[in-house]
Structures are given as structure tokens and as C-alpha cells.
Amino acid sequence: MATDATTTKFQNPTDFHPDFHSEKISSATSYDGLHFWQYMISGSIAGLVEHMAMFPVDTVKTHMQAIGSCPIKSVSVTHVLNSLLKSGGPSSLYRGIAAMALGAGPAHAVHFSVYEVCKKHLSRDNPNSSIAHAVSGVCATVASDAVFTPMDMVKQRLQLGSDSVYKGVWDCVKRVAMR
Question: Could you say which residues form the signal peptide (predicted)?
Fold first, then answer.
């Protein structure tokens, strides 16, 4: 049986207005309940996990793109996968993963952090502003791509080259920088 206090509290559903944006969230050190450094770490971990899980698929895609530039040869996913496994074994699917880790961690930390900072500054008056979220996403993507693109190029060179072409990530970086 409901008491008078609970029945009067919920008499009119239109009077219910939850406060999703409390004072704590708008403080200088907290964004949506998390601190800035927590966004950086969680973004970095999320990006690394995602890129590592998808790395074999990315390797196959990179090889298909490289072969696809040749108009004479047409290849399928299974053809590229079989070719990679025959030539280098399962480890060939992970060639260049160190470069990806060196780029993806910092890039995703930048992405999550820039997004939250931009969202906080652009949506002060309206926390649900679609424009603020879209502009924040654009800013975050541009910033993270500036961090990730150089290591992505190194990753692709390592994926496409054999072990004899580059001795590792730093060898590839040095040789590309010398050009």
C-alpha cells in the first residue's frame, strides 16, 4: 500500500524532471563524472583492444588494397589469407602490430580527451546539442588522426614488407625519415 508521501510525489508525471547534469559534472576536473586522465586511459585501452582484435582483418585488407592497385590481378579475402598463412604462418597476420600499438594508444587517448573537452566547452548552454557533439567529434578525429597517421603508415609498410625489408618499427621509422 502506498503512503501519502509517495503518492503525492508521483501524482503528475510531467512534474518529474531528472537532473542529468549536476554541479559535480560541470566542475573543472570532471567530465560526465570522470576525470580527464580517466578519459585518456580508458580511450587508450579501448583503442588498443579494438585495434588488436581487428589487426588480422586489417592486415588482409591492407594486402588486398596493395594487390588491388594492379589491374591484372584480382584477389579475394580467402586468397590473400591463404597466401599470408603459406608465406609466413599465423605470425604474418600480426606483422606491424607494435607500430599499431605505439600509434593507437596515444591516438585514442587524444580522441577521447579532445572530444570530452570540446563537448564540455561547446555544450555549456545545451548539454544535448547535436551540433556540439558533431563538432566535438570532428575536432577529436582530426586531433587523433594527426597522432595516428604517421604510425599507421609505418604499420602498413611493416604489414606489406617481409621480415627482411625492415628490422622492426624503429628501423622503418628511421628509413622513412631519411627519405
Answer: none
Give Cβ neighbours of residue 168 (< 8 Å, ≥ 6 apart).
98
The C-alpha atoms of residue 103 and residue 39 are separated, in whole angstroms, by 17
8 Å CB contact between 46 and 108:
yes
d(C-alpha 55, C-alpha 65), whole Å: 15
pLDDT reading at 178 higher than 80: yes
Task: Output the nine-digit C-alpha cell for 175.
Answer: 628509413
Instruction: State the DSSP H helix or E strand holding residue 34, giving kind and residue range, or none if neither.
Output: strand 34-35
**Structural domains in the chain, sorted by start:** 35-162 (1.50.40.10)
List CB contacts of 44: < 8 A, sequence separation 6 or more: 105, 106, 108, 109, 112
